[in-house]
Amino acid sequence: MRKIHLGDVCKRGSSNIALKDLDGNDGCYPIYGASGFIKNIDFYHQEREYIAVVKDGAGIGRTMLLPAKSSVIGTLQYLIPNSDSEISTRYLYYAITAMNLSKYFSGATIPHIYFKDYQKELVKVPDLVEQDRIAGIFEKIDATIALRKEQQVELDKLVRSRFIEMFGDSVNNPLGLPTVLLSDVSDIVSGITKGRKTNGAELFEVPYMAVSNVKAGYIDWSTVKTIRATKDEIEQYCLQPLDVLMTEGGDPDKLGRGAIISAPPENCIHQNHIFRVRVNRNRLLPQYLEEYLQHQKAKQYFLGCAKQTTGIASINMKQLRVMPVLLPEIKLQNQFAAFVQATDKSKYLSHLCIDICCMTANKYRQERMLCQTLNF
């Protein structure tokens, strides 16, 4: 089996299309950005299937296999197999995804990755029949993951519909639900500050929740970092099951997102850009609050009072404490919580299936060694 430098089996292309160039341009050819599909436009750049790599900014290093007759914006670059390379685009895509491209990132403020830096990565090139067989296995794994993710989206929609069915539209409040301040029904604290002075106190390494861990309606466990904290700090910031974590800032459309942490690791704390909301469960249930935060009344409140600079919005403790919350009877909240818990069981099984698929893909990738990462 041959081993060939990546730069010898494919060529790089670039795009100068900006998002603003797409305004008013509509058609039937897809164009993609760092997060995936953007819209359909009236032109395309690539005649055949190709690979795109996010070269700077958010999502840097992400690799996508994109269809023929499509384009990408300028934050991505094209990678197209040479016609004489005897390597399929599908196989090359999975070989590149196996590479550790992060070691080639450069730039402090806005990270970049350049093809000239990683073009010497070695790619194993079996015969075309074997390439198709290997790519086919990865495609089946990807299809299973995509199906499970779609199931999770549908379950989230089901919960949202149930919320509106039980409590009405949060903006119009057709049921005339009473309004309370969040601080009236919960205890709210900010978290630990990195780089603070500890005055020589004994430190213990513990896990902590960062902004990247808190999504809209769920906790992302893919990366859990640790921090050294004093005993008093651990006691002060230690998370308990069913605490609701909320973000201080981020993209305006994600402002104030929150999620329940059902089973925090032992001595897990949270950073200062995360608010911990511990509700009074005699009056407000965390399952209700988690879903309430994703509806328009909460979103409009945060956008109305947030401080915004260069596309980033943030809220402070004072603003969060006086956030208005529609408060149904606890009996109704319990019914909704029971419904959420039932759907969570299905979501858990989907998450489990995705995890198994990812582990299977990683094991198969390691066994086949599609690429050989260079050591410098």
Overview of this protein structure:
With 376 residues, the protein is of the alpha+beta class. 33% of the residues lie in helices and 24% in strands. Strand 5 (50-54) and strand 6 (63-66) form a beta hairpin. The longest helix has 40 residues, at 128-167. Helix 4 (128-167) packs antiparallel against helix 9 (330-368). The radius of gyration is 24 Å and the shape is globular. It has helices at residues 6-9, 89-97, 115-118, 128-167, 231-237, 286-292, 296-305, 317-321, 330-368; strands at 2-5, 10-14, 29-33, 36-41, 50-54, 63-66, 71-72, 76-81, 122-125, 179-181, 186-189, 204-209, 225-229, 243-247, 249-250, 258-261, 269-270, 274-279, 307-309, 312-314, 324-326, 371-372.
Task: Write a compact overview of the structure shown.
By secondary structure, this protein is of the alpha+beta class.
- Tell me, briefly, the overall form: globular
What's the end-to-end separation, in Å?
Answer: 24 Å
Tell me the Rg in angstroms: 24 Å
The helix count comes to: 9
Work out the helicity level: 25-40%
Poorly predicted segments? none
Q: Strand content of the residues, in percent?
A: 15-25%
Structural class: alpha+beta
The main pleated sheet reads as: 4 strands, antiparallel
The beta-strand count equals 22
Whole-number average pLDDT?
90
Strand arrangement within the widest β-sheet reads 2-8-5-6
